[in-house]
Amino acid sequence: MTTVAVRAERPRRSALTATWAFVKRHVLTVYSILFFVYLLLPIAIVIVFSFNNPPGKTNFVWHSFTLHNWTHWDAVPDLRSSIFLSLKIALIASIIATALGTFIALALVRYQFRGRGSTNILVFLPLSTPEIVLGASLLTLFLNMSFITFGFWTILIAHIMFCISFAVVTVKARLIGFDRHLEEAAMDLGANELTTFTKVTLPLIAPAILASLALCFAISIDDFVVTYFNAGNQVTFPLFVWGAARIGTPPQVNVIGTAIFVIALTIMLINVLVQIGRQKRSA
Amino acid sequence: MGFFHRHRGSTPYLLLAPGLLFLGVFFLVPLGFLAYQSLQSGTIDFGYSFTWQFSNFSDAVSNYKPQFIRSFVYAGIATLIALVISYPVAYWIAFRGGRWKNLLLLGIVAPFFVTYLIRTLAWETILADHGLVVNTLRHLHLLGILGQNGRILQTSTAVVAGITYNFLPFMALPLYVSLEQIDARLIEAAEDLYASKFHAFLKVTLPLSLPGIVAGTLLTFIPAAGDFINAQLLGSPENHMIGNVIQSKFLELTDYPAAAAMSFILMFIIVLFVLLYARAVGTEQLTG
């Protein structure tokens, strides 16, 4: 009997030691995996609770599985209009901010001019100002302009304002690593200025412009603080969530949150997988 | 750009004009209005008048000292935790990530794809009284470590945890960028010269990643100090930060001068912090 017990115990102990040895050797990897679990846990919660069927108003405790929230995603009053408002503002703000930001980036990278340093600082300042100060200062501006009514336009202006700096930074990063000889070559081969710009410069910075559009769109659609200060009685999606959180968030909010997450993740994932494929081919 | 060579002198200004004009009118001018408002006196019903009311500033500090202190303490702790927990992961991705680097980075920024408020509400679910964390602690009979009321939600722990989580990618990404740029041969050279792995890290890797540490701490600390969402959703009124006060003074109590003064003090302390910090670590690349 005793030999059996010893024999049964030995492999278990060695498995334990093996596991321990593995953990010790790969401590950084194990830690990183745990870190990602922590990072992604709230996202999992959001997704899981979009399928919850809560008995009361709050959606904090798991009750039972249902698809109802997904099939009736706009059963909650004002949810649909808030999403459309957010999409509209994010679309317009990202296009205008990217255009303005691209021009600034071109000037900063391509030209030596007086006031370059102060331009850099002016672009950097909004990035280093807390959102609440950005929102509060715009609010005081609009409050002092009695002809302004809070709503769509004030939200749009606010969003363009805080997106411009992000656009400049994104496009600038691409322009700095850009070979100017390509443009000179095009000109030497007889292309005029406009053709050079549209055929050489624009295609080369196009990825940066796209990246800037995506970044600005994402920042705009997610913004709460600055919008909260300048929205008047208009309700964007984050403002809707804020209002709902006070009385009990309906699971439909999780549905929309999950949908935004899945769409953004899919776009980014395709982008990353294309890059990985390219690296594989060139390797 | 060849296109513009002919008008070399004015071209940069033409390119800058629309964007800078926008930033001027809707960023700089509003700061001026905020300053103007902060020195006014009166109420919303009887109107405000500009009276060089410097007492708005001293009142703000004396009446809301705890909230100011709490903002910077919470933001400081959250920044420190974010730095410590994300540095190893940034290191792992930079040196061991290989072909999967971009995919792993996508994992780091994934929380940003979920609306800020919704991911904070998810933490409310996780930290709730019968949520994941409290129940796990209960099963392990460790509920005692939470103190006598046995809750996490509506404590400073929850607020700091929420802030840490919400701004974590701002810390991890710059750390990764600076670690990624380190030439691995430098570390090998240090080891060839008989530095232990730990010493090589301390003397080579860590100093070379300093720009990332500086950028990450600033990008985390600045929004964290002005945040009010985490304190509102995860904390109790006893955990309220200066952002909560500014928000309610502006939007609920319509006490604009006091709120404007507080916004200025918040910004002033942050700018002061950034300058001191930049001087201490000697990084001149703050403006990119």
CATH architecture of one domain in chain B: Orthogonal Bundle
Poorly predicted ranges of chain A (pLDDT <50, ≥5 residues)?
1-6
Q: How much of the residues of chain B is beta strand, in percent? A: under 5%
Task: Let me know the average pLDDT of chain B.
Answer: 88
User: How far apart are the first and last residues' alpha carbons of chain A, in Å?
Assistant: 60 Å
Terminal residue distance of chain B: 22 Å
- Write out the CATH superfamily name of one domain in chain B: MetI-like
- Gyration radius of chain A (Cα, Å) is 26 Å
How large is the share of residues in beta strands of chain A? under 5%
| Secondary-structure class of chain A | mainly alpha
The CATH class of one domain in chain A turns out to be Mainly Alpha
- The coarse overall form of chain A would be globular
Describe the structure.
The complex is a heterodimer of chains A (283) and B (288). Chain A is mainly alpha-helical and 283 residues long. Chain A has a domain at 79-249: Orthogonal Bundle (MetI-like fold). Chain A is built from 12 helices and no strands. Chain A has helices at 2-25, 27-49, 68-71, 79-110, 116-127, 131-144, 152-176, 181-188, 193-222, 225-230, 237-247, 251-282. The longest helix of chain A is centred in the middle third of the chain and has 32 residues, at 79-110. Chain B is mainly α and 288 residues long. Chain B has a domain at 63-240: Orthogonal Bundle (MetI-like fold). Chain B is built from 13 helices and 2 strands, in the order H-E-E-H-H-H-H-H-H-H-H-H-H-H-H. In chain B, a hairpin with a 3-residue loop joins strand 1 and strand 2 (47-50). The radius of gyration of chain B is 24 Å and the shape is globular. Chain B starts with 10 loop residues before the first helix and ends in a 7-residue tail after the last helix. At the A-B interface, helix 2, helix 4, helix 5, helix 6 and helix 7 of A face helix 1, helix 3, helix 4, helix 5 and helix 10 of B.
